[in-house]
Design the sequence.
């Protein structure tokens, strides 16, 4: 069973990195340059921002590049493929954007906690993108990841908060 958990973590690693990288990119760039919100400040039909200021062009690009680079490194060790890793990365980023969109519709501000949505939106996006492209998704691996991602996400967010990368520990 431990081998299956390890396999699942290696398989999803590009998505995990893609999901976390925008926080690092924003932290690094915020000090040097103005960030560009993906929604360009526009509002949706309900009058609320589409995504909010925390979802940026730079974060999206940085997340995709970081996740894809992880897949490339893993490919060198025959642990992953570049294309599947890139697909998981963009899927994770799109899933995170979908979560932000839902939170804005609910009237939540960027950074407000939404238990399980915050921890699983990117994972659902990664799963969906992988399935759409490759027409396969190992249900055991997916189940393991659904169970272990929420606590891992909370721990990594707390560490990012302690490191000064995030404003909130969730």
Sequence:
């Amino acid at each position: 069973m431990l081998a299956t958990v390890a396999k699942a973590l290696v398989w999803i690693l590009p998505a995990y990195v893609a999901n976390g990288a925008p926080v690092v990119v924003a932290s690094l760039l915020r000090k040097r340059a103005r960030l560009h919100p993906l929604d360009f400040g526009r509002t949706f039909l309900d009058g609320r921002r589409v995504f909010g200021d925390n979802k940026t062009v730079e974060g999206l690009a940085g997340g995709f590049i970081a996740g894809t680079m992880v897949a490339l490194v893993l490919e060198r060790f025959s642990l992953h493929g570049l294309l599947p890793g890139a697909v998981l990365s963009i899927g994770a980023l799109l899933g995170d954007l979908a979560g932000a969109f839902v939170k804005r519709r609910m009237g939540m501000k960027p950074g407000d906690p939404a238990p399980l949505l915050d921890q699983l939106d990117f994972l659902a996006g990664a799963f969906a993108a992988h399935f759409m492209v490759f027409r396969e998704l190992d249900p055991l691996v997916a189940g393991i990841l659904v169970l272990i991602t929420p606590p891992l996400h909370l721990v990594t967010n707390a560490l990012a908060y302690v490191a000064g990368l995030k404003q909130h520990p969730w």
